[in-house]
Amino acid sequence: MKKNIQEAARIIRSKNSGPYELTLDIMFKNRRYFDLFRAENIINPELICRLYRIPQSDILGILYFEPAQAVKITMKRRIPSGALGDGDIYGAQQHAPLLEIEFEEN
Fold it and tell me: What is the CATH number of the domain that holds 29?
């Protein structure tokens, strides 16, 4: 059965990770969802590239962090924080594409 990420995550957010990087965090509701996403490699470079329309070289890392039951994605910002044309200086509104993630759960 196909489900949306919002059924599995308690927090989906984004924030600056310095002026040139953006961090996306997904914190799962429970250990079962964390283990499912990690085991099935649901959050992967190809998915992030498609959702954000970026080249794979812009993804700096995807880390599953067991103590927080979370996954952290770090990527290059398209425009440095605070530069001319930057519409989100804190990077706090860049998580919306993650809301499109769907997954299978038996």
Answer: 3.30.70
Mind listing the pLDDT tens digit for each residue in 27-74? 999 999 999 999 999 999 999 999 999 999 999 999 999 999 999 999
The whole domain housing 44 covers 2-79
Angstrom distances, CA of residue 41 to CA of 14, 78, 86, 90, 92: 20, 25, 32, 28, 25
Per DSSP, the three-state class of 72 is strand
Which tokens in the block code for residue 99?
A: 């809301």
- Check if the beta carbon of residue 12 is closer than 8 Å to that of residue 5: yes
**Contact between 70 and 42 (Cβ < 8 Å):** no
